[in-house]
């Protein structure tokens, strides 16, 4: 009786990326002038959603990706998206972010070329505080990238 043994060889390479290569965010929430809704502040912001694109063709890196509670570190409070993406050296990035009382808006859209966030068919019901941030364009460095500064406005 002949026995055949088949060996399968897989080459799994683990690449350790430095933390400064992962795209992270820092936040600031400006004060609202409305009082009919619970205002979102830096103290009670628990999550937001982000869009991100890079290069001249504005290739998507994030599409409505959740970013959860920030952790305090050397750079201040740093927020990490649930989907990790890494900076590509020399590429230009544009981001848009929002929080709708911590709720995701499924049909939210970000146009990286015009740097505009839109919320088709959004109806204001005065129960959620919609805040939006569209920071300046960022060019990735080979190392020591700092968190993208998001200044949210009501």
Task: Summarize the topology.
Elements: E1 25-29, E2 47-54, E3 59-73, E4 76-81, E5 92-100, E6 109-111, E7 116-118, E8 130-133, E9 138-139, E10 148-152
Parallel strand pairs: 1-10
Antiparallel strand pairs: 2-3, 2-5, 3-4, 5-8, 5-9, 6-7
Structural key phrases:
Immunoglobulin-like; mainly beta; six-stranded antiparallel sheet; 154 residues
Molecular structure report:
- The chain has 154 residues and is mainly β.
- The chain has one domain (21-152): Immunoglobulin-like.
- The strands form three sheets. Strands 2, 3, 4, 5, 8 and 9 form a six-stranded antiparallel β-sheet that branches.
- The chain has no helices and ten strands.
- The chain is globular and about 45 Å long.
């Amino acid at each position: 009786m002949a026995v055949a043994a088949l060996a399968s060889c897989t080459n799994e390479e683990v690449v350790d990326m430095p933390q400064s290569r992962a795209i992270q965010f820092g936040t600031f929430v400006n004060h609202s002038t409305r009082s009919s809704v619970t205002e979102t502040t830096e103290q009670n912001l628990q999550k937001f959603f982000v869009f991100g694109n890079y290069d001249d063709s504005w290739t998507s890196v994030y599409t409505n990706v959740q970013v959860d509670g920030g952790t305090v570190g050397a750079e201040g409070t740093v927020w990490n998206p649930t989907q990790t993406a890494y900076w590509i050296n020399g590429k230009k990035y544009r981001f848009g972010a929002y929080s709708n009382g911590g709720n995701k808006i499924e049909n939210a859209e970000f146009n990286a070329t015009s740097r505009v966030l839109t919320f088709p068919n959004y109806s204001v019901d005065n129960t959620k505080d919609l805040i939006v941030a569209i920071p300046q364009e960022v060019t990735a460095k080979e190392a020591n990238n700092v968190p993208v500064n998001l200044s949210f406005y009501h």
